[in-house]
Amino acid sequence: MNAPVQPPIIRHVAAGQLCCDPVWEAAYKRFETPEQEITKFIARLRRFGFESLDRNSRIVEIFCGRGNGLVALEQMGFNNLEGVDLSDSLLEEYHGPAQLHLADCVDLPLESDAYDVVIVQGGLHHLPDMPTDLDGSLAGVRRILKPTGTFYVIEPWRTPFLVFAHAVTDRSIVRKLYAKGDALAVMTERERVTYDQWLGMPEVIRETFDRHFDIRSWTTSWGKLAAIGSPRKP
Ligand SMILES: C[S@@+](CC[C@H](N)C(=O)[O-])C[C@H]1O[C@@H](n2cnc3c(N)ncnc32)[C@H](O)[C@@H]1O
């Protein structure tokens, strides 16, 4: 059987123009293997109810990193996939049929009213200028979604579990003994400013989401926000 054709990355910005941190990227890559990520993403997509979605749905994952969320979607049978990220080196790690875009998700260069599904899995908490950048990103998602489309969100959230997890992984002995804890601690250190900023403004985040989406589900547990929304169209 022939391997699927891999479309070339569409570069809307010059590589390296706006990012990236090689130390953070190295920790991100060793935090989980691609196989572990794909298993995690499939379980998450099932919890969101993706099993019941039309496999021809046009789906874009924003802040897609090295694209294992797209691989998970492909393994579930979805065939109209796109991904957006600012890191050329992470996008280059993806192998598959999805159309990738090198672009800033604060200013999404994608077609309006065109997508059935937009998903983000841990990207919004990287935004430096809050809440302006969040407003820009969510306005873009609202614009590119069809009126019948849906936005799925997973982001970190300050819950008792998250506070406990950081208290444990920040201890040097745990970092030495547990490689995954060390990778998490390095990522957290490198993104500390945006991460803490994100965790520290839950009300502002919710208000910003409410401006752009009718929120159908908003749950916070085990250190994560899981949200589903429909775009507010005029
Ligand atoms: C924590 S990673 C998540 C990657 C992927 N969703 C996953 O779960 O494996 C965050 C990603 O956001 C990307 N990123 C950060 N700021 C961005 C921006 N303004 N526009 C596009 N991508 C951005 C980074 O390059 C990184 O790949």
TrEMBL record:
Methyltransferase type domain mapped to chain residues: 62-153
Family matches, as Pfam families: Methyltransf_11
InterPro entries reported in the protein's UniProt record: Methyltransf_11 (IPR013216), SAM-dependent_MTases_sf (IPR029063)
GO molecular-function term, one example from the UniProt record: S-adenosylmethionine-dependent methyltransferase activity
Protein name stated in the entry: Methyltransferase type 11 domain-containing protein
